[in-house]
Amino acid sequence: MISIKSTLKNVKILHLAFLFTVPLFLLQLHLLHPAEHGVSNTVIFGFGAACLLDIVIASRFRDRMIAPSKELLRANPEDTAALNRWRAGSIISFTYAETIVLFGFALKVLGAGWNIAGIFFVVGILLLLAWTPRLDLRQTL
User: Fold this and answer.
1) pLDDT tens digits along 23-80
2) Residue 14: which H helix or E strand, with range?
3) Distance (Å, rounded) from C-alpha 43 to C-alpha 41?
């Protein structure tokens, strides 16, 4: 049987790994030092639209997977299916937030300035921080 504490610990470790990749992307950009030149507004708007879609999809996953799973776990802490759905929803959320950071990385490599690419990095980091995994263990244990 999977315990809530061990699952929460594992998801938190995975969350930290996702957060740790952001400085690695920044280090890679520092080492590559891509030249800044004009990137088409179409490309920038396309990346922006993809990021907005990522946020919408990730929010829907969170609404459909994480929130109901938390409620089920409050009612029945032994519900492994709910715990697995919570874990999957969390990992999917992290992945979508990381994708936004990757879009910023790609824009920077394509030649966009930090005033554009930085927005993608900041939004991705803020989502990763906002979506820190939490389970109210006081009520479930």
Assistant:
1) 999 999 999 999 999 899 999 999 999 999 999 999 999 999 999 999 999 888 889 9
2) helix 4-32
3) 5
How far is the C-alpha of 122 from the C-alpha of 63, rounded, in Å? Answer: 23
Side-chain half-sphere CA neighbours of 126 within 13 A: 7
Q: By the 8 A CB rule, do 39 and 112 touch? A: yes
- Strand, coil or helix: 38: coil
For residues 14 and 94, the answer to whether their CB atoms sit within 8 Å is yes
Structure tokens at 76: 């029945």
**CA–CA dist 7, 88 (Å, integer):** 11
Task: Kindly report the pTM of this predicted structure.
Answer: 0.90
**What single string gives the DSSP state of each residue in 60-121?**
HHIIIIIHHHHHHHHH-TT-HHHHHHHHHHHHHHHHHHHHHHHHHHHHHHHT--HHHHHHHH
Cβ–Cβ < 8 Å for 91, 69: no
